[in-house]
Amino acid sequence: MNLIDSGHSLYVYNRTASKASPAAAKGAVVCESVASLAKQCNIVFTIVSDDAALKNICIGENGLLHHLQTDSVHVSLSTILPQTALDLASLHEQRGQHYLASPVFGRPEAAVAKKLNFTISGNEKIRKQVEPLLREAGGMHVWHFGNDITAANTVKLCGNFLIASALEAIGESIQLAKKSRVDAQQMWDMFSQTLFAAPVYVNYSKIILQEKFEPAAFTMKLGLKDIDLVLQQAASAQQSMPLASLLQKNMQQIISEGNEDIDWSAVSSATLK
Amino acid sequence: MNLIDSGHSLYVYNRTASKASPAAAKGAVVCESVASLAKQCNIVFTIVSDDAALKNICIGENGLLHHLQTDSVHVSLSTILPQTALDLASLHEQRGQHYLASPVFGRPEAAVAKKLNFTISGNEKIRKQVEPLLREAGGMHVWHFGNDITAANTVKLCGNFLIASALEAIGESIQLAKKSRVDAQQMWDMFSQTLFAAPVYVNYSKIILQEKFEPAAFTMKLGLKDIDLVLQQAASAQQSMPLASLLQKNMQQIISEGNEDIDWSAVSSATLK
Q1: In this structure, are residues A182 and A258 in contact, taking their beta carbons and an 8 Å threshold?
Q2: Is B178 known to be catalytic?
Q3: Distance from CA of B99 to the nearest CA of A (A)
Q4: Does A186 contact B145 at a Cβ distance shorter than 8 Å?
């Protein structure tokens, strides 16, 4: 939407056609396939929920790789494994195309308010070319992490791990306060204005205090997907991450109880019953 | 020091007499015992490292309880169990004295800069009487948590638990970034200005990035003491706190390896070797 407002011609595709309607109403051209979109665009942004979905869009006779023109750019906004970024970058390169990793921090309302934080890594010249578009798309900041294509995805995994860790800590603290007959709202009024006066704590402490876990802004299922990626990356780096393992265990338990669609901020509820 | 600057007569006592020298140089009267100090003061602030030390100051023939005059106030700044606060408040009350819980957030440099955050709970009239002194002593804010004497200590335990949780998360994220060949400094430049733009993350990410764990501003031994209190409080509230248990385990391991005097921000190093 922001790109259209900035005067760009926008072509869109979604498996679920109705999801493209709001963009279409603003003048975007709705494409019937990834292939038809790829043929018409010199820069393609993709954002999907996991590594398999992204590979599915890229590879095969209907994929981006087959249909993008030479020198076109694929800007991948999804949270995926660094290794997947490396593999896709290599495949694009073989076809004379470019691949950039640009995972993004910010919920939908941050996109509307143009307060997104984009991370970006890959070929410097292509990064410089794409940066203005990311700003027009809603990026308050574009954070560059160099030419190694894997860097931005590692940073994104670290960021989501840090957020999930904060969610667990906030949840345990609220429960301890409540069970000790302390006004947890009053306690978080203080923390939110002092030691923890940061967006993650300010926003999520409100949600957790009110237990407003539905509708989810980011589901437990997607949260677990990200923590699984964090631990896969840690394993490939031969590092133990006990806090990430704890988060994984809690999320698995909540999902096993049928709550995969509640907000991931409920992560600490696994052990607080 | 701030109290002297504000024009108050200050009497001081420390087991290690030399520690009172800086205050004495500014005009404080150094007392030879808790008892002699108690006889001369109508408001006494105590700050010691654990519950046992505080009880030791209060109870017995040389203690505050025996020597404070009627209607005097004992303001306890230490991080202790809520139950200990309840017990001491009751003992003071039996002698016609007052006890307030006022654990404090802020390192020594924050005291100098008058940027401390005091929490406070206990009798409202006495709280109002003491609040101006806490501001003069360096309190940027004084956060009131009502008449229940235990509340402020619970809030302090929650706060220290939240800080230690952040330390573990920061440490694991930095290690994952480094082992994935990402510039962890650059990553924290971003997080410190965006999602985690809060004092705890800004200050501690610098220390952990540089691995400046000595000299300690707050030792691992004291960190473990606090997490032990958090888990004691959780047990008495019949609550499980898996993240607190993880922190306890890591701190115990670091201390068992002879590193009890390094800064508690090294907590994640237990599992990162």
Answers
A1: no
A2: no
A3: 19
A4: yes
If you compute the radius of gyration of chain B from its CA atoms, what whole number of angstroms results?
A: 20
Is A196–B198 a contact, with Cβ atoms under 8 angstroms apart? yes
- CA neighbours closer than 13 Å in the CB half-sphere of residue B105: 26
Q: What are residue A81's DSSP bridge partners?
A: none
A182 touches chain B (CB under 8 A): yes
Name the active-site residue from A19, A26, A55, A156. Answer: A156
Length of chain A: 273
Q: How far apart are CA B171 and CA B204, in angstroms?
A: 10
3-state secondary structure chain B: CHHHHCCCCCEECCCCHHHHHHHHHCCCEECCCHHHHHHHCCEEEECCCCHHHHHHHHCCCCCHHHHCCCCCEEEECCCCCHHHHHHHHHHHHHCCCEEEECCEECCHHHHHCCCEEEEEECCHHHHHHHHHHHHHCCEEEEEECCCCCCHHHHHHHHHHHHHHHHHHHHHHHHHHHHHCCCCHHHHHHHHHHCCCCCHHHHHHHHHHHHCCCCCCCCEHHHHHHHHHHHHHHHHHCCCCCHHHHHHHHHHHHHHHCCCCCCEHHHHHHHHCC
Residues 6+ positions from B194 with CB-CB distance below 8 Å: A105, A117, A141, A199
Which of B175, B195, B237 shows the shortest C-beta gap to A200?
Answer: B195
Q: Do B176 and A241 touch (CB under 8 A)?
A: yes
Identify the bridge partners of residue A141 per DSSP, sorted by sequence position: A117
Q: What is the ipTM of this complex?
A: 0.96
Confidence of residue B89 (pLDDT cuts 50, 70, 90): very high
Alpha carbons B92 and B72: distance in angstroms, whole number = 9
Do B153 and B103 form a contact (C-beta atoms < 8 A)? yes
Residue A111, min C-alpha distance to chain B (Å): 15
Which site among B182, B188, B202, B209 would you substitute to test the A interface, given the most A Cβ atoms closer than 10 Å to its Cβ? B182
* DSSP 8-state class, residue A138: T
- Cα-Cα-Cα-Cα torsion A223, B264, A182, B131, nearest 10 degrees, comes to -130
Instruction: Give B-chain residues touching A245 at CB under 8 angstroms.
Output: none
Residue A19 to chain B, least CA–CA distance (Å):
29
pLDDT in tens, chain A (273 residues): 999 999 999 999 999 989 999 999 999 999 999 999 999 999 999 999 999 999 999 998 999 999 999 999 999 999 999 999 999 999 999 999 999 999 999 988 899 999 999 999 999 999 999 999 999 999 999 999 999 999 999 999 999 999 999 999 999 999 999 999 999 999 999 999 999 999 999 999 999 999 999 999 999 999 999 999 999 999 999 999 999 999 999 999 999 999 999 999 999 998 765
H or E segment at A29? Answer: strand A29-30
